[in-house]
Amino acid sequence: xxxxxxxxxxxxxxxxxxxxxxxxxxxxxxxxxxxxxxxxxxxxxxxxxxxxxxxxxxxxxxxxxxxxxxxxxxxxxxxxxxxxxxxxxxxxxxxxxxxxxxxxxxxxxxxxxxxxxxxxxxxxxxxxxxxxxxxxxxxxxxxxxxxxxxxxxxxxxxxxxxxxxxxxxxxxxxxxxxxxxxxxxxxxxxxxxxxxxxxxxxxxxxxxxxxxxxxxxxxxxxxxxxxxxxxxxxxxxxxxxxxxxxxxxxxxxxxxxxxxxxxxxxxxxxxxxxxxxxxxxxxxxxxxxxxxxxxxxxxxxxxxxxx
Length: 307
What we know:
The chain is α/β, with parallel strands linked by helices. It has a single domain (76-303), classed as TIM Barrel, CATH 3.20.20. 34% of the residues lie in helices and 15% in strands. The chain is built from 9 helices and 12 strands. It has helices spanning 13-18, 43-67, 90-102, 110-115, 120-126, 137-141, 190-200, 231-249, 292-303; strands at 6-11, 21-22, 38-39, 73-78, 83-85, 148-151, 156-160, 167-169, 209-213, 254-257, 279-281, 288-290. The strands form 4 sheets. Strands 1-4-6-9-10 form a 5-stranded parallel beta sheet. A 3-stranded mixed beta sheet has the order 5-7-8. Helix 8 links the parallel strand 9 and strand 10 (254-257). The longest helix is centred in the first third of the chain and has 25 residues, at 43-67. The protein starts with 5 loop residues before the first strand and ends with a helix.
């Protein structure tokens, strides 16, 4: 602990709770894809489990503060849902801010961590399924952090609507551009609107935000010339970095960006099927081959501009 200066407590509560547990009538038809893959007794038990994860994160921050060397920073990493306005009108932008705060899972994860309370509309929509909150819980959950690690890949489009949130999430139509992962829809403005909403929807323009993961999956292969021409990934990263530049130019506190991933990896429940790396890995021989995206990103870094 005397040499490590930057700490992250939990990685993706949304993944290890919200995609690992379910409840009768809930998502995944009773079989969540991520471990432990458990169906809980009720929706209330599901949200209580999520609440406990928030407590663990807050206690983790406190533990790091108590033991890390002076000058260390501590925060968490979360794959918060980004909402993008269907049109950049005042009405749809306002709806985007409302959706970012009040819809699930943001209203049940990042909102209490960053504001110290669950969103009231979110709790209203949960009704009797809302978690039981003990005295002192929210103070632990909202233990101050030094920034935010933002894992982001895709987004949902929203527009203004006449409901208690004031926003409608739109379904992607058949044929919408999608990467190898079925959930990874190409939404080039994701980083911009995600970073902007931390400031405008949650009022946390004091937070230094780092994009800790962003990338695209493709069924890559080495061609006859020994190259991996992952042009789709290059396009994804180019548009994503343009989105990041827009956020910075408009004064939002985006301070870093990490590509997911340096090399093909074991990808949650999908194992070695979905490739996210900018380096190709032959999983039989472990031979590694830089992809076209590797060469492109190397030049982006060297020239300090989007190419």
